[in-house]
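Hi C.,

You asked whether I'd gotten around to modeling the 465-residue construct. I have! Everything is below, sequence then structure, no commentary in between.
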Amino acid sequence: MQRNKLGCFTFSGILSAIITIIVISGVAYARGGLMYNPGPLNAQPGEMLGGVSSHAETGGECEACHTAPWSSISMAERCTDCHGEIALQMQNMLALHGSMYQSNPGLECRNCHPEHRGADAPLTVMTGREFPHELLGFSMNGHRLTVQREPFTCADCHQDDISIFATDSCDACHRQMDPVFAQAHALSFGAACLDCHDGVDRFGGRFNHNVSQFKLEGGHREAACVQCHIDARQLADFKTAPQDCYFCHRSDDPHEARFGADCSACHSADGWKPAQFDHSLSAFKLEGEHAKVSCEDCHQSGVYQGTPTDCYSCHSQDDEHNGRFGTDCAACHNPFDWENATFDHNRSSFPLDGAHIDVACEQCHLNNTFAGTSAQCAACHADPDFHAGALGPNCADCHSTAAWIPANFNLSHPEPRVDEEGTGINHGYTTCRTCHPATVRSYTCLACHSDNQGGEGDEHEGGDD
């Protein structure tokens, strides 16, 4: 019987070939790929680690990074032997590498940091893998889809280098969404979007001022941010914006700072008008009838500062005295009632004392005539018949304001004298009418001296002065 000759394709030959291939491959793998070269290593210089500043400086020693399959040391551990700071991060869930590693147990260094792609190829490639942007302060929750409704890729914001953020990326996208707003926003607050925005956005699309110290009320609700936050470029700039009215409204101040910088003393956020002014805070407090007067009655043509505070500036046209009492209306009147007037005569040239205090004004000031009223007694007190015109108009020579009686007269009468017997003769201690019963121009001695007293009786009676 003739046997079928297969040559080397016998069972034993095929088995030997397979064993040879496995041995050669195992040796090649165990020696770290010494028998083949997958491509040049990255030669970009960086921080000096493990005695080299780039992977290319290892000199092709594959064992520096690669390990044998049966080795207890992994390739990732070879990486962390040099990159010690990354090893520490991997133990911290809050750190970038720690979060990625602990949330993805099967994740290896080479999944994000491939090698053998050329001397100038980047060492970080994130395409196709979810990167925890939140750990770097920027969330992708609000950036799932582009304007074209397509998923974002790393290159959309990082272009060719994942470690660099292209500052014009935000502007390029948002101009497609709202070109007018994007341009105005960039002009007002600059192009460094990440200084304020975190991708969610932290402001929820529009900042809620009601959670801040300065709540927006009234007309402030419609104000643009840039009107108050001038030249703001970072969050700190927004927080330090002045909150006083005058900082924003000084250009609108029709008072030209005459009332100071506290606009809220008169105005509210609802509108400039109507305005309220608390006169009790000023040097001229409104009392009585003044509290009912409109502002325009005293502040003509919108002029406030420098408005006179004296009565006469406003009430000159109402002066029924025609200026005879001067311009100090407050000397007699008060703001509660014009008719309830008082006059302090002690401030005049004719102070009131004695019985004059109780005299009604009209008794001296006839027909409401005040200025020019005579201060002479005779102007009010007509010369009595008893004086017969002999004593003149100066009543005060004998009388006082306390009362008409008693009166004192000693202008021409002799001083008291004593006779030879020592008897006192004192005409000064009697009344005028004792000797002058009718008028001062006639007299008699008989009231005191009878006919048998010296024989000088009525032969003198009725004599003239």
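If it helps when you're writing up: The longest strand covers residues 417-418.

Thanks,
B.
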